[in-house]
Design goal:
The chain has 799 residues and is α+β, with helices and mostly antiparallel strands. It is 19% helix and 30% strand. Helix 2 packs antiparallel against helix 3 and helix 4 packs antiparallel against helix 5.
Length: 799
């Protein structure tokens, strides 16, 4: 099972954070999202419809009373709650009969689409109406189908009890319209034997966290006797003993050498791992240049719409075919990563019993048996006739260096017809190849369609659509028995059929996760519709699960935009999917929309992160095929990308830069991409910088000459000279040697660190405490003191 990652939930304005009230102080919890249905089922709990009443609401209009949501009358337009305003915050607060463990919420709808339906909403829950935690942030489709959402959350692995549910509309489907909710149903359990221990644990958790906040506050303010007394009386530990030892050495004793030794121990034990994992990747592109004495003819030429595979056992990349702007290609190459050399395996595969020249085909590799499989191709309409529209299927034996024709026409033996721009991947355990989607070629005369993706393809030749194109379904090919099976046929493009029907498409991405036994399918194009859905197909059970249906508009910064020829890879060990985008869906602005971005999808957290964007204009680009290395590849589409999950490296070759002044231009540049996070040693150096900076600040007040020498010899040794921010901070430190007393006092006042008659903390202790707090953030949450402080929750009363 995957381990969910904890995170602090976003808190909207006007909502009290996750709370235990402690003399007016709100405690913020870290939640771990889990599948409540699975957890409750394992606990043997019986899920039932939960009764509730309407406790209050922000407003309502006319006869659209809040109690209307308790009855499901989809044909009655008046059977709804409607706010009297669309100005936030609007809400409706539900009160359950008893404290419950809630598994899901269902929204019923009017029988027709309606402008007042909730496009965006948030749901909060808790035992008390003033202490609520966010349980869901989502939205409804503007249709007539009820929608059910799981309320997934845990607190430290324990189920979270609720008595109140607060629904907060954020946006309606119609601009400037009030919010409407037609029907709400809650599912969960009120079994007291299950709810009672959750409430008891929750109350104990609140008390413990309140005490830990008090302990942190006392220690920060140098009230060490009170700290020890409270800790002894309550037997509540503020943090892991290692961090307590770190605090004693750093803050109390000022022993900086011992502090660094403790941090070395933490690194040796891998304690910075969770922090490293939480950091965003930083992309590092490297241009792979040929050896100086290598003949330029001994490497692949310019192309797009080609195929690549990688053998991670031998670190070998295989490249076949493509379109060079004028013609299809049928050369087969291998690239040795360790030796940085290309090898031409076949100059003309057709002459050697292999596939003819082609592009928009697909290729996959069976690493264990050293076999390449090739299926599909594109044909211009003038070259299509009945005799050559056969779906030939080839295998290349790497050891024997020989092609084998598996089948002249897969359609005859139960496989797909001749298709292009499909997807193909291999299940190595069952030795089964899965083929999904793709456009079926037909012998239609005078058909000026585009090569590859009908509007912006793998090869990029202009053209148009047939009115009713045909798409291929999901097929499985079993290698040992050489048999095909149709798993899912195309549902003929009916607009009402969603991802559960697995609508076929072209230009999509499909990846196989061997541990999950699932195909991950994302985006693509179907006729003139640009798909942005994301779903999985379980190859053992045939179950289709929607990750994102693509109908809800989301911030483009949070999810890859719909487009063509995006390239996807997967790391099943890290449970991450990587996508390098291709061409925007706006064909009329192609010059402006050849923009690449690199996205990482975390399967466990169900979260997209954009780690790289490149939208450099064509005018700013240098010659992409020059021999001088650049910082990053120019924007392109119809490229190919493969991933070595062992070495954690991507390899990119060729593509179409989409230049309107040179439409036949293709690229032959070769790049590697590594996604980097700070290492344990780099974090250790950062910690040493914080520690030595603290010691330097103390020395500036006691002995400026010694401080200057320390800055030059000790502090400079741990400066990260690749970081502009750290270098700038290092240079600013010299100014501390020349600060006046007034400037020093001003800095302390602005930072909230003020010495006064009532203060119990000397300046050195306060400075060291702030550095200790910074160091503690590198440790796992379960080891560290609370991230928040009591003073964070103190505010002036409103006038």
């Amino acid at each position: 099972m995957f381990q969910a990652q904890s995170y602090c939930l976003p808190l909207p304005v006007g909502i009290i954070p996750l709370n235990a009230r402690f003399h007016g102080i709100s405690l913020v919890y870290n939640l771990k999202h889990q599948n409540n249905l699975l957890i409750m089922a394992e606990a043997g709990l019986d899920m039932k419809k939960l009764n509730y009443s309407v406790d209050s609401c922000s407003s309502f209009s006319a006869t659209y009373f809040p109690e209307n949501i308790m009855k499901d009358f989809p044909a009655d337009q008046a059977s709804r709650w409607s706010s009297d305003s669309n100005i936030p915050p609007q809400f409706i607060l539900l009160k359950l009969e008893r404290a419950s463990l809630i598994e899901s919420i269902t929204f019923g709808k009017y029988e027709k689409t309606h402008v007042c339906n909730l496009k965006k909403f948030c749901i909060y829950g808790g035992l008390h109406p003033e202490n609520l935690v966010e349980l869901l942030n989502s939205g409804l489709k503007n249709d007539n189908q009820p929608e059910t959402f799981s309320l997934k959350h845990l607190v430290e692995g324990k189920m979270f009890p609720c008595r109140y549910i607060k629904i907060v509309p954020v946006q309606s489907w119609g601009p400037s319209f009030n919010f409407s909710i037609w029907y709400v149903e809650l599912m969960g359990t009120q079994e007291w034997d299950a709810v009672k221990p959750c409430i008891q644990w929750y109350n104990a958790y609140r008390e413990r966290e309140a005490i830990r906040l008090c302990l942190k506050h006392l220690r920060q303010n140098q009230c060490l006797e009170a700290f020890e007394c409270l800790q002894k009386r309550t037997k509540v530990q503020l943090e892991d003993p290692l961090l307590s030892e770190l605090h004693w050495a750093m803050v109390v004793k000022g022993d900086y050498e011992a502090t660094e030794q403790l941090l070395h121990r933490a690194v040796d034990n891998g304690l910075f791992g969770p922090y490293i994992y939480s950091q965003d990747y930083v992309p590092e592109w490297s241009r792979i240049l040929p050896c100086i004495d290598e003949d330029p003819c001994h490497r692949p030429g310019m192309r797009g719409g080609h195929q690549m595979c990688i053998d991670t056992n031998t670190e070998t990349v295989y490249l076949f075919g493509g379109w060079d702007g004028v013609q299809d290609l049928n050369d087969l190459w291998s690239y040795s990563v360790p030796n940085n050399t290309w090898t031409l395996l076949s100059n003309n595969t057709e002459e050697e019993g292999g596939p003819s020249a082609r592009s928009c085909h697909k290729m996959c590799l069976d690493q264990d048996h050293r076999q390449l499989f090739c299926l599909g191709r594109y044909l211009d309409s003038q070259h299509r006739h009945t005799n050559n529209l056969k779906s030939d299927f080839y295998m290349y034996d790497i050891e024997q260096k020989k092609w084998h024709l598996i089948c002249e026409d897969t359609a005859v033996v139960g496989g797909p017809k001749l298709i292009f721009d499909h997807q193909m991947c291999l299940d190595p355990e069952k030795r089964t190849i899965y083929v999904f989607g793709g456009r079926i070629l037909s012998p239609a005369p005078g058909y000026p369609e585009e090569r590859g993706l009908a509007v912006a393809s793998s090869s990029g030749v202009g053209g148009a659509f047939l009115s009713e194109p045909q798409f291929s379904g999901l097929y499985a090919y079993h290698i040992p028995t050489s048999t095909w099976r149709l798993l899912r046929d195309d549902p003929s493009g009916s607009p009402g059929l969603g991802p559960i029907e697995m609508r076929s498409r072209i230009g999509h991405s499909m990846l196989f996760h061997p541990s999950e036994r699932k195909l991950f399918i994302f985006a693509g194009q179907r006729s003139k519709e640009y798909l942005n859905d994301f779903f999985t197909y379980n190859v053992d059970t045939g179950e289709v699960t929607t990750v994102t249906d693509g109908t809800r508009r989301r911030d483009p910064a949070q999810i890859p935009a719909a487009g063509f020829t995006q390239r996807a890879t997967i790391d099943h060990e890290l449970n991450e999917i990587y996508i390098l985008s291709g061409l925007s869906k706006d064909k009329d602005k192609r010059d402006d929309n050849v923009k690449n971005s690199f996205w990482v999808y975390n399967i466990v957290d169900n979260k997209w992160t954009c780690v790289y964007r490149n939208d450099s204009s064509r005018e700013k680009e240098s010659d992409s095929n020059s021999k001088m290395p650049g910082e990053e590849p120019c924007p392109r589409f119809a490229h190919q990308l493969v991933y070595d999950h062992v070495k954690k490296a991507h390899y990119l070759f060729g593509g179409n830069p989409g230049r309107s002044n040179d439409p036949k231009m293709r690229l032959d540049d070769f790049w590697s991409l590594r996604l980097c996070r700070p290492s344990q040693s780099q974090l250790l150096t950062r910690c040493q910088f914080l520690i030595r900076k603290c010691q330097f600040r103390e020395l500036t007040e006691a002995d400026p000459i010694r401080a200057m020498l320390y800055l030059q010899n000790n502090l400079s040794a741990v400066v990260d000279r690749t970081s502009d921010d750290q270098m700038a901070e290092f240079h600013r430190l010299t100014n501390l040697l020349f600060r006046t007393k007034e400037q020093q006092e001003e800095d302390e006042l602005l930072s909230g660190k003020v010495d006064n008659a009532e203060s119990t903390v000397n300046s050195s202790y306060r400075l060291r405490s702030s550095v200790f707090d910074a160091l503690a953030r590198f440790f796992p949450d379960y080891m560290a003191q609370p991230r928040f402080s009591l003073t964070d929750f103190v505010a002036f009363d409103k006038a």
